[in-house]
TrEMBL record:
<protein>
    <submittedName>
        <fullName>TetR family transcriptional regulator</fullName>
    </submittedName>
</protein>
<dbReference type="InterPro" id="IPR001647">
    <property type="entry name" value="HTH_TetR"/>
</dbReference>
<dbReference type="InterPro" id="IPR036271">
    <property type="entry name" value="Tet_transcr_reg_TetR-rel_C_sf"/>
</dbReference>
<keyword id="KW-0238">DNA-binding</keyword>
<dbReference type="InterPro" id="IPR050109">
    <property type="entry name" value="HTH-type_TetR-like_transc_reg"/>
</dbReference>
<keyword id="KW-0804">Transcription</keyword>
<dbReference type="InterPro" id="IPR009057">
    <property type="entry name" value="Homeodomain-like_sf"/>
</dbReference>
<keyword id="KW-0805">Transcription regulation</keyword>
<feature type="DNA-binding region" description="H-T-H motif">
    <location>
        <begin position="29"/>
        <end position="48"/>
    </location>
</feature>
<dbReference type="GO" id="GO:0000976">
    <property type="term" value="F:transcription cis-regulatory region binding"/>
</dbReference>
<dbReference type="GO" id="GO:0045892">
    <property type="term" value="P:negative regulation of DNA-templated transcription"/>
</dbReference>
<feature type="domain" description="HTH tetR-type">
    <location>
        <begin position="6"/>
        <end position="66"/>
    </location>
</feature>
<dbReference type="InterPro" id="IPR023772">
    <property type="entry name" value="DNA-bd_HTH_TetR-type_CS"/>
</dbReference>
<dbReference type="GO" id="GO:0003700">
    <property type="term" value="F:DNA-binding transcription factor activity"/>
</dbReference>
<dbReference type="Pfam" id="PF00440">
    <property type="entry name" value="TetR_N"/>
</dbReference>
Amino acid sequence: MNMNKKMTYEVILETSYRLFAEHGFEKTSMSMIAKELGISKPALYYHFASKEALIDVLFEEICRGIDFSRFFDKRQYTKGNFEQRFIEDGLNMIGHQDQNYLQIMNQYHALGYREPKYMRMLIEILEGYTKGFAELLQHGVDLGVLPEQDVMVRAEMLTMIMDGMDNFMSYGFECRYEDIWKVTVLSLIKGDRVP
């Protein structure tokens, strides 16, 4: 793919992301996207055969963008920085979620109830977070900064907390998300026993 096609592809995805977030999947047409891009509808169809194909590709890109490894890199965690790094990486992820992201994920969640492929992908993301948190927590155990107990339960809890915060943010619910994350991480480090 030459540079112009790649740039056009990326610009199409960025513009579609914004328009889908602002107007929803149903109300955003390929004509509207083409007009916003300043290209013809056939030019848009050259890159994406249908609006559904565009929605699919956009979701794949969003999923890559929120992959666990983008926010938490186990190799960067040491005995001396584990707690602070865990807090900072989680806060970075929370801060990554802009209003467009929250709006569009609401639509993908709704779509997941009608289209099993979206639900499967959403579940895969959550499973990736649980696995990633389990590996990170085990790394903390190996470093001697976390207690050797309930690693999988704690990983599942972290995934639920992250997913819950994501959902609450998408509803516009005002919470002290940063403080919730800090308290959660500090309780893990202290080794509060999970019943």
